[in-house]
């Protein structure tokens, strides 16, 4: 009897355990369903609030395409690498694209593409920059810092008069292709040759280790109306002639003409310790050497800034005239290289401005970092390399709004707060007040604001850098001859400089 009772108790306990187990499984099933329903609802809610969030890193990436001859040779490989590193994907121009990088001047070869340009698209050339980069136009501009030159055969008579009055001067005949350069006596020059010019030769060049050299300064043009130009401030290209300058023999151009097979900085005995042993930049290598010779490198760069600003001011009407033909005025930016030579007194001479300067380190691997920095800084200040890596076309308004708002561009607070004096917006001091600015003028100031934030190692060449004292005491009458947008731009930078010293440079 006792055994039967024990069996019944054991069986009851077993059945109770099975019942409890099934009940727990049922409860867990209900909890799991509730959990899944909660997260499904939350996911749907999130999707509705932030559309295309999951695909932003793939579908919405900005697209660039490259145009040029023989691209398979790799001369634009650094451009491609940098664009990909800052979040772009490469296209072929047949479908959607954001940025076009063309090695050639695109306004004739790609006219059909440019005619259909959309507001968000960017191109790495401005229309009309041939007035700056064409060697004949540049040399015969009569601009300070450019050696005197005469266009042939049109100015043949003027040249002969100059040569007669200054028999000690040396002259070199050049063509637009920059080939066949050689110093010759006046009687040996071909003064009837079309598309050439004769230019005064700088007879007392500064030499380092007995070699003549030039320096390449990289600039980025971000706007023509108003004019804004930036310089790569902390680096330059230095190229030395392959042979010693003295004793001079003008039949041997390797002594005084910098060609493709130039001697690089790291092979110059007096510069090796700075560049190689102490890992200085090209610019600081040159600066350190000059200081060791009791020379002031700042004297050079003050002239460089003045020369570049003067050049673009001189040519800006030509640029604006070319830009007026375009539908979208803010679709362009341009990287150029200005080549200067120095004389023994550190006076600088602007010899040429290169459209699409060499950016390939195939010949000199040591220039790789320089070229990458040139490209990255140019893309950054021009707004191509951005902190928000999405297509320029689909970028919603709030993305730009949180980067720069109307409060960021507000200046002249005290004047604008005086309702009586600025009620009609006719006074010059009121032009920068928010209520007096047009929608287009606000966009101009927002572009300038973003360029300043994104300038990295570039610095403003025009509008010119200044001190706060300069800004405070500036005579606005000096701007009277400028176009309206240029007057506005310069006044705004002066006002920002007075607000914050970082805006003075």
Automatic annotation (TrEMBL):
Q: Name one Pfam family in it.
A: TTL
What parts of the sequence cross the membrane?
7-26
Gene3D superfamilies according to UniProt: ATP-grasp fold, B domain
Q: Which UniProt keywords apply?
A: Membrane, Transmembrane, Transmembrane helix
Q: What is this protein called?
A: Tubulin polyglutamylase TTLL6
Native organism taxonomy: Eukaryota, Metazoa, Echinodermata, Eleutherozoa, Echinozoa
């Amino acid at each position: 009897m006792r055994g039967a009772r024990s069996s019944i108790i054991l069986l009851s306990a077993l059945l109770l355990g099975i019942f409890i187990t099934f009940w727990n499984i049922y409860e867990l099933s209900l909890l799991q369903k509730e959990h899944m329903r909660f997260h499904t609802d939350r996911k749907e809610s999130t999707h509705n609030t932030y559309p295309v969030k999951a695909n932003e890193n793939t579908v919405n990436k900005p697209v660039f395409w490259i145009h040029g001859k023989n691209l398979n040779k790799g001369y634009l490989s650094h451009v491609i690498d940098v664009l990909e590193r800052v979040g772009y994907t490469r296209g072929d121009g047949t479908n959607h694209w954001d940025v076009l990088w063309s090695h050639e001047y695109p306004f004739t070869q790609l006219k059909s593409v440019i005619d259909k340009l959309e507001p968000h698209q960017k191109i790495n050339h401005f229309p009309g920059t041939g007035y700056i980069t064409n060697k004949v136009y540049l040399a015969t501009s009569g601009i300070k810092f450019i050696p005197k030159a005469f266009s042939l055969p049109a100015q043949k008579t003027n040249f002969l008069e100059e040569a007669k009055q200054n028999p000690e001067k040396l002259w070199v005949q050049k063509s637009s292709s920059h080939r066949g350069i050689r110093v010759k006596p006046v009687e040996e020059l071909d003064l009837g040759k079309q598309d050439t010019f004769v230019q005064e030769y700088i007879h007392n060049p500064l030499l380092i280790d007995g070699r003549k050299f030039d320096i390449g300064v990289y600039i980025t043009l971000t706007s023509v109306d108003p004019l804004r130009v930036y310089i790569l401030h902390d680096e330059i290209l230095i190229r030395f002639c392959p042979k010693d300058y003295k004793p001079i023999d003008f039949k041997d151009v390797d002594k005084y003409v910098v060609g493709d097979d130039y001697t690089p900085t790291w092979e110059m005995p007096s510069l090796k310790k700075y560049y190689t042993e102490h890992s200085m930049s090209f610019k600081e290598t040159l600066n350190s050497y000059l200081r060791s010779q009791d020379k002031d490198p700042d004297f050079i760069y003050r002239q460089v800034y003045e020369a570049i600003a003067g050049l673009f001011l001189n040519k800006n009407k030509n640029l604006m005239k070319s830009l007026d033909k375009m539908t979208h005025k803010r679709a362009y930016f341009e990287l150029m290289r200005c080549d200067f030579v120095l004389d023994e007194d550190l006076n600088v001479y602007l010899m040429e401005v290169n459209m699409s300067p060499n950016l390939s380190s195939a010949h000199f691997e040591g220039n790789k970092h320089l070229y990458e920095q040139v490209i990255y800084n140019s893309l950054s200040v021009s707004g191509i390399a951005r902190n928000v890596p999405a297509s320029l076309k689909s970028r919603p308004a709030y993305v730009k709004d949180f980067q720069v708002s109307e409060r960021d561009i507000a200046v002249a607070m005290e004047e604008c707060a005086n309702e009586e004096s600025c009620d009609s917006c006719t006074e010059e001091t009121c032009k920068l007040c928010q209520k007096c600015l047009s929608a287009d003028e606000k966009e101009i100031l927002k572009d300038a604001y973003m360029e300043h934030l994104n300038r990295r190692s570039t610095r403003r060449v025009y509008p010119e850098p200044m001190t706060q004292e300069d800004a405070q005491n500036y005579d606005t009458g000096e701007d009277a001859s400028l176009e309206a947008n240029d007057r506005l731009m310069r006044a705004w930078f002066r006002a920002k400089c007075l607000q914050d010293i970082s805006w003075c440079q």
